Amino acid sequence: MRILCALHAHLGLVTALQRFPELHGEPVIVGGAPELRLPVVAASAAARAAGVRPGQPLRQAQQLCPAAAFVPIDPAAVTRLREAVCATLLRLAPAVEVGDDEVFCDISGRHVQHLDEAAWAAAIARALDAVLGAGSPAVGMAGSRFVARMAAMRSGPGRIRRVRPAEEAAFLAPLPLEVLPIDPAMAARLAAFGLDCLGAVAGLSPADLQRQFGPEGIRLHRLVRGEETDGVHVEPAAQMWSERLVLAGPVGDLEVLLQAARHCTETLGARLVERGLAAATVTLEYEVEESVPIAVAEVAPAPAGNVPEAWTVVLGLLGRLQPPGPVTAVRVEVAQLEPAGGRQTDLLRPGDSARDAVALAAGRLRARFGEAAVRRPRLALDPGDLPERRYVWEAPVVAAAS
Amino acid sequence: MPDSLSAALATLRRRYGPQALRRGDQQEAAERWPTGIPILDGVLMPGGLPRGRITVLAASSSRGPSGRLTLLQSLVALASRSRDVGYVDLAGTLDPGFLADLGADLHACLVLTPGHDRWERGLAMARTLTGAGMPWMGVALGEQDRPRTALWEHALAAFAETVSKRGAVGVIAAPAPLAAPLAHASSLTLTCAAAGWQRAHGDVTGLRVRVTTTKSKVGAPGAEAMLLLRYPRPYAVAEVLGLPSVVAPALSIAETEPMPAAAVAPG
To answer: What are A207-239's pLDDT values in tens digits?
Structure first.
């Protein structure tokens, strides 16, 4: 496994500077008003130069840096920014974890465009810089999450530090115990034993560490040797979005319903593009006057990640859904959302990268000429005696959408 | 060569690509898709089926079976083991069970049924899928009620252009007599003529077919070979898998059995 860690400005600070661009270069402390009994969430470079650190009480931060501007954190803006970072990086790496001030990417294997690992890391760093606009991040690459983070911390802004495979233990050996993400009491006991660096801890046997610290000792042993297997923690994407349009009055005209569905699809498609997601299932619902709503859903031939792909599916649904009376509202829903850029392809079939496009083209042909126009045969599990029962027909859906 | 002519040729190459012009004594270079069947790859179409070109499997006579559809389905089955395959069934004769018996990976096969003898629609659908990236496309044209040429020749030209642009393999099985647009669009035409049934213990086990390269823009025409299209036993997928469904027979042409008039076989 290869993991990239990029350290960047705190998302709270970035959103604060986006809200108040006049504070660029000034000491800024994010967390709220200084009279509140709250900790510092993030501090700008000028504030850190004055001794302000995240986690300090805001009142103490004010005493250290009286000239600082105190800004409350905007959780909604931070969430939006995190999603934007995630969407951008998912186009470059299959698994991405976006923290408040650090990003982890799984860079195992080889990227189709950036063949060299350093070029791949540089592309990720450039993308991160472009979306945050807060300067080049410090990047580290290694075989484990902890080592990658340490490498990034010992790198500098705009620089990449690579720890080659099998060199993790040598890289960690001279580092002090303070860098270990462990219980402070445990670190104090290690110091009491006279151990002053990670290399000294790595020299102990796992059995010794287990005797002293229990199961945590085994974890510590792996950590100091750069052998921990804790990878990238991918945050699950939202499961469903929907867009509802209430019509001016009850409508029976199919052309109006088509335009309403088009409007909802365009809104949802734009959101999918913005967040870098694709929907496996699309649902169309009519709210009928004085009756229960009717809906029809379909698994998209290939995950729909933009307006044309979603509209192809919605068009097919429009043909299938006949309103029994005047319609008062139209709702389009996209569900089973997944990262659009991180789809698994079939390794054993050449030309597989075109399968999504082929499935989409087949979906368009089915919508135009009927469902029997393009089908995929499958052998029946219980064929019986008749030859025509040996197979069944199914819709051409790519594996990622099923 | 005068300067003005050189300039004109350079302009044409710049506008339409380097393949637009070639000397008469130079053969067109074409990438190949090797079928893995020695007699096809070695004798009839050296190197395999040409990519980016249309290959036509033509029937020699409109009477009786020719084996072209069985040969097309054998090639589809072979191709499906390594890539996605589209099959346009305009003849209405495709039996997916038979395709599975030939060793096809049905999960890789997309069957298009545009309607009986809707050639223009079938070719347009084939073009759409090829343009979307389908690397191998087979088209089985029907024998009955052949539509007027004017209705489908433009769709055929568009399909041939898309096959060329995407570097796909395009194979069309066509009934006799071969329509002029198909003969024109083809880069490789293999004419199939049934030469007799293959029997074992009184049962028909295959069809012997004489295949002639009647046109080749990617090699020398005139090659001729005998193929045995062996019918796989139904309900025996595992047994058929991995076996070549098209092999060179040990028999010579003189030893073949005459075709019974009432016999019917797929293709």
So the answer is: 988 888 888 888 889 988 888 888 888 766 567
Which chain B residues have a beta carbon less than 8 Å from that of A383?
235
- Taking an 8 Å cut-off on Cβ atoms, the answer to whether B106 and A372 are in contact is no
Nearest to A103, CA basis, from A119, A87, A115, A116: A87
So what's the pLDDT on residue A347?
55
pLDDT greater than 60 at residue B238: no
Helix (H, G, I), strand (E, B) or coil at B99: helix
Mean pLDDT for B191-215 is: 86
Contact A372 B237 (CB under 8 A): no
Strand (E) positions, A31-175?
Answer: 42-43, 69-71, 96-98, 102-106, 138-142, 160-162
Q: Which of A349, A352, A361 lies nearest to residue B128, judging by beta carbons?
A: A361
Displacement of CA A352 from its chain's centroid (Å)? 24
Q: In sequence order, which ranges of chain B are alpha helices (DSSP H)?
A: 3-16, 38-39, 68-80, 96-101, 119-131, 149-166, 180-185, 237-240
Q: CA B164, B170, B176: angle at the middle one, nearest 5?
A: 125
Residue A302 at interface with chain B, using a CB cutoff of 8 Å: no
Reading the block at residue B56, the tokens are 């036509």
* Identity at A143, one-letter amino acid code: G
The pTM (predicted TM-score) of the whole model is 0.58
Given A350, A377, A387, which is nearest B109 (Cβ)? A377
Q: Phi first, then psi: what are they for A322, rounded to 5°?
A: -105, 115
CB A354 within 8 Å of CB B137: no
Between A358, A375, A377, which is nearest B133 by CB? A358
Low-confidence ranges of chain A (pLDDT < 50): 399-402
Its sign, for the CA torsion A107, A108, A114, A119, is positive
Contacts of A377 in chain B (CB under 8 A): 96, 99-100, 106, 109, 111
Contact A171, A188 (CB under 8 A): no
